[in-house]
Write a structure and sequence with these properties.
alpha/beta
Amino acid sequence: MRGRGHPIAGQNLSIEAYAALNHILVSPRGDTSGALDRILVDFGLRRRIALLVATYLALPVALAASDLVATVPSRTARQIAATAEIDIMPLPIDFSTTVSMAWHRRAASEPAQAWFRALLIEAAGD
């Protein structure tokens, strides 16, 4: 995500160009790197975290008032872009992940368990 009018508007970024941008990291615990940073290391890259925020609520204002970018889940990006002057750009790398569930076989046919598993599948669908 980036604010509208950002200098990279309309560009297809390489992974190197993406890493070279100034980033906002959403980190509720105050960690100074995230899962994406571990992937970038595999490419010999490191991104510059210029701003650390504790919540996604801070992103619209920070992105609109700067040339910073933020990497967030696609559903979150769409929700923010629907209410703010924010553009969504694709990542130059595949950052998808596999999520698995496990439950005891006794719970497989319980309606509440089935409902909850369906809810989790829907939420993770993006």
